[in-house]
Amino acid sequence: MTTPRFTINLLNVALCTALATTTINQAFAEENTLNTQVKNAASELTERLQIIGHSDKLRKEAGSATFIGEVELEKFNFDDINRVLYSVPGVNIREEDGYGLRPNIGFRGATPERSKKITVMEDGVLIGPAPYSAPAAYYFPMMSKMTSLEVFKGPAAIKYGPNTVAGALNMTTRAIPTDSEGAVDFAIGSDGFGKVTGYYGNTNGNFGYLLELTHVEADGFKELDSIDDKSADTGFKKNDAMLKLQYDLSSKNYSQIVELKLATATEKSNETYLGLTDNDFAKNPNRRYVASQHDLMDWDHQQVQLTHLISNDKFDVTTRVYRNDFTRSWNKINGFKSGERDLQEILTNTTNELNEEFYQVLTGARDTQLEGEKIILGDNYREYYSQGIQSELNTSFTLFDIDHEITTGVRFHQDQIERKHTEDAYLMVSKELVSDGSDTVSTTTNIEETDAFSVFLQDTINLSQLALTFGIRGEYFDSLYQNKKIDKKADWLKKSSHIWLPSISGFYTINNNAGLLFGIHEGFIPTSPKESPQIDIENSINYEVGGRYNNGNTKLEGIVFFNDIKNLKEGCSFSAAASCGNSLDAEFNGGKVDVLGLELSASHNFTLSNHWEVPVSMVYTYTTSEFKSDFISDFPMWGAITQGDSLPYLPENQLTLSTSLVGEQWEVNTIIRYIDEMKEASGQGVLLSNVTTSSYVVVDLSASYNFDKYGKVYFKVDNILDEQEIVSRRPYGARPSKPQQLQLGYQYSF
Amino acid sequence: MFYTNKKLLSIAISASLLLTACNQEVTSSEGEDYNTKDNNTDTSFNQLALVTQLTDNVITPTFEAFKLEAQKQTERIDSYCINEHSFANDDIDEATLTASKASAQEQWRNTINVWQQAELMQLGPLLNEDGLLRNKIYSWPTVKACGIDYDVMYFRIGTVNGQPYNIDLRTPSRKGLDALEYLLFTDSTEHSCEVTAPPPNWLTLTHSEIKTARCDFALEVAKDITNNADLLLEAWNGETGYANTLRSAGTTNSTFTTEHEAVNALSDSLFYLDSITKDAKLATPLGILTNPCGSSVCVEKVESVYAQHSFTHIHNNLIGFQKLLSGDTDTNNGLGFIEYLIDVGAETLATEMAANVDKAINTLNTLDTSLTETLETDPDKVEQLHSEVKSVTDQLKTDFITSLALELPATSAGDND
To answer: In chain B, what residues touch A472 (CB-CB under 8 Å)?
Structure first.
């Protein structure tokens, strides 16, 4: 099949549109803003980087959006994004390593696998390594340096593509301070945890700058079997450096600012996909088999981002140019050379005596004796880049006696993944992995790349107490898959796709404290460049209805959502199951699926007679899902599906309760979380059919005392009950939640 | 004002609905090697006829022949066991016992000779549940002699772990043709376990009691093999049997959406010759592949260590391969992979592969000592045999697969990522 390719030079279109938008609105603004006061451009920029307003008043935007600000984040100083997001309704998470190094986050039932069904952004820019071509987020920004976090679901997500089925997550880095400001933070903790962060920034006249450095490390809580019973390092070391430079170009009529952000980050983590048998987990959930002794993730990330903002009372335009480079090498156990049975099979059915022999090699109880018992370590080396330019305009005007608030934007984006996977064979000899001397074998060698042009327009009209927002998002993208093996040059696929996604939402203001909201939007998730055009995109119509109440001290929000997924799509990766090794990156159609849920959040601030504050909050999510047809799938999380089966890794009930006691110079905070059991597989006939993770309760505690000019001391205990449960049996075998971890820290601000 | 608002609203909602109705499109172009797994050969060769010939005239008769031999095996072992008990009671002489045991051993050889051909025909019911049915019939290379001795005693006692002994529930390595080989061809009455962990009651029994106990268990194992042969035929034949799934490939009654997929399933079974015959049965004991003897000659990894029937096993593997390749049987000449190769223009490959199989069979016919003995005295001959089998499997993995647009089985790809 040969059809014409999309021939418009997308970069030109994007640039022209961005510039035109700016020019038109400059002209428009010049005519209408003769007496405009210049705003503080820096604070305007901060607002644009954060997307949700966060005042104490009733939020009137339609659509579900959650904001977690710096004050909230500082209560627990979480370094793990998973722990932060448990306080957001409608989020489903599959934990993996306990530290949140490679999170699996889904919203409203979207499969959490490597967060690939949500749109992840940093400072409003796509931050996944290759969000279109390979959306699995193997790079995730360091939570420690974030000052706020926003989650958008429902029609609110239409502004942020490409993945609009579930929603978007935006994390905001520290803004350049308007005056001299800095802080250092040192923390030590159990399992060799250590953290050092510091920043300093200032604005001198029109020039502002900020430098922030972060280092986090841990020895890890897993205990690797070894000959001398001395546990090796199973932890990680992460570094991040960020420099922001800003220049204020504001004139009498316009606030205008440019900001350059440069960032670099590294991670070396002794992480593995290898888990435990259920029996071994029951004896010691933190054990790690000796076959994972060489497993190491080593990545490197660079980021350049140039942002320009121009605004006055009538409009603002934010334009960003960005480039992210990411390289990763993950050398880890893939399986046995025989290939007859994968690691998940071996660890699931240990009573099978064939599996038992392989299990003995994994644990080092027996040396490799046969060719098929050689252990295969695969280095999945990948290089990614993601670059683009995007521009967003906010303005308002009156037409036909109706007030319009317009938000519109364009983006031209390019990304690429280049895979250079190799494998090496090892012998297990006296609990040590020893190379068998054979040559390194090249396995997957290919590239996938996408050029994407996207536009969105949202128009909010105010009809008395009802504010209606109409939205539309268009995505046009050309993708290329090319096998890079010398003899496979003719193995390529080019695709051109486009889709238009409408949305409508509304907010009805009952009074100053209460309102009702509703929304309908169409969502989609693109297929990978390699995937056959015969594989349908994931496409859904999403509905939500609810209400908000906010009297300044008490906040309530309740939203019922219904996702009518026309075709659920999943992809096979090593992190999904060992059996995916034979169909890596293959995608599967799951047909129609309904997801129905309820999101409730409530908070209230009590003040005691001695003026101590007692803020309390509750977040509850109920989610139910069902496949609407019978089918048999090779996808290891599905199997033979019967109509009515529910989705994997989607807890029915999740509840988070948090409370604090805040004095003048001190505070104590607790969070109690309940997460229901989750299915490891939806249907029958696959390895983890009828197996669930355990439901569990986690209690975290933190306390701090502020010595004013001498800084602040904080202490926290994650998982104070020190109970560990199986949070997942993927990729290969049972994996624990994080055990109790103590942390003592000191912050000094200047 | 109100009218204008309503009008605007209805236009916006209508536009949204229109966009939802026809809002996406994908166009594509692809290289000729893209997604080759969906390719097919572009000749008019009747692939369904090939599938039907191999199913009806090669595989089904092999499974049926195995059942007949298994039944005879049970009868012969039953006779031998009666004699073992009679001999224990001094009712018959040793020559009668020896003759009946030899008859039982001979029938074991006849039975496994057929099974070694069926090993090349592992499809459908023999692959389900991780090859459970195949392993129940023959679990090599997983054979646990000590475990068999344990079950000899459990069967004699009648209970295991507090439950009545039920061979159907026992692990495959303690039963099947491999366990039967151990039971019929081991003269010693010593158990095969660590000295510190003898099977229960073993040490309290006399030599005669151990022999009758092993014999009684051998009969139970033989009955279990017959039972599993029945189960195999049930799952193979019949309206919903796997043979019908193969024969109806390309229709809605089959899990094979195309005839070519069924051909691919049959070609997958040929790869036994590569991973098991070549690698496990020859390269591993030769030390070409890793073995417990430090990658030198290792007779303990030979397949048939008790009956010393290894070369015949390999011979029958090659016969099974040959039948699938040619589609010919003793009584029927039909379509096989050879004809398919000729049809796609790979006549030279077809001729060479058939000749290479013949060559390996001829080499086997010249060997008059066991594999164990040949490994110890003249390993070059075994290396030659390995090399000849390899010449067949090398062609299988490359030119054969490419010519017929087939996929390698996942375990043979070697570069799965």
So the answer is: 16, 19
Given a cut of 70, whether residue A577 has pLDDT beyond it is: no
Rounded to whole angstroms, the Cα distance separating A47 from A55 reads 12
Q: Return d(Cα B259, Cα B253) in angstroms, integer.
A: 12
Whether the per-residue pLDDT at A373 is higher than 50: the answer is yes
> Side chain identity at B388, as an amino acid letter?
E
pLDDT tens for residues A85-104? 988 999 988 888 888 898 99
Taking an 8 Å cut-off on Cβ atoms, the answer to whether B29 and A498 are in contact is: no
Identical fold, B47-242 and B271-409: yes
pLDDT at B52 over 80: yes
- Strands A402-429 and A432-435 turn out to be antiparallel
User: Average pLDDT of B95-117?
Assistant: 97
Residue A561 tokens, joined: 């959502």
Fold observed for domain A10-749: Maltoporin; Chain A (2.40.170)
- Name residue A481's amino acid: Y
Q: What is the pLDDT of residue B39?
A: 63
What residues of chain A, 332 to 391, have a C-beta less than 8 Å from chain B?
338-341, 345, 349, 352-354, 357, 368-374, 378, 380
Q: Which residues are A622's β-sheet partners?
A: A598, A653
Give me the residue spans of the domains in chain A: 10-749
A400 chain-B contacts, CB cut-off 8 A? 4, 8
Do B369 and B377 contact (CB within 8 A), yes or no? Answer: yes
Q: Whole-model pTM? A: 0.84
Assess if CATH 3.30.300.30 describes domain B271-409: no
From start to end of B22-169, where are the E strands?
Answer: 24-30, 159-160, 163-164
> Which residue does chain B place closest to A475, by CA atoms?
B24
- Please name the residue that has the structure tokens 């001391």: A713
Is the CB of residue A683 less than 8 Å from the CB of residue A641? yes
CB A207 within 8 A of CB A247: yes
Report the SS3 class of residue B46.
Answer: coil
Instruction: Report d(CA A125, CA A151) in Å as an integer.
Output: 14
By the 8 A CB rule, do B183 and B221 touch? Answer: yes
Any B CB within 8 A of A300 CB: no
Average pLDDT value for residue range B352-381: 96
Listed residue (A85, A268, A284, A309) closest to A176, CA to CA: A309
Per-residue burial over B138-165, b if 16 or more Cβ lie within 10 Å, else e, is bbbbbbbbebbbbbbbbbbeeebeeeeb
Q: Would you give the distance in Å from CA A316 to the centre of its chain?
A: 28
Q: Sketch the domain layout of chain B as residue ranges.
A: 47-242, 271-409
Among chain B residues, CA nearest to A584: B417
Give the C-alpha separation, A116 to A733, whole Å: 22
A401: nearest CA in chain B? B1
Mean pLDDT of chain B: 90
Give B402→chain A minimum CA distance, Å.
Answer: 13
Q: Give the CATH fold of the B47-242 domain.
A: A middle domain of Talin 1 (1.20.1420)
Nearest to A339 among B32, B172, B416 (CB): B416
Indicate the SS3 state at residue B211: helix
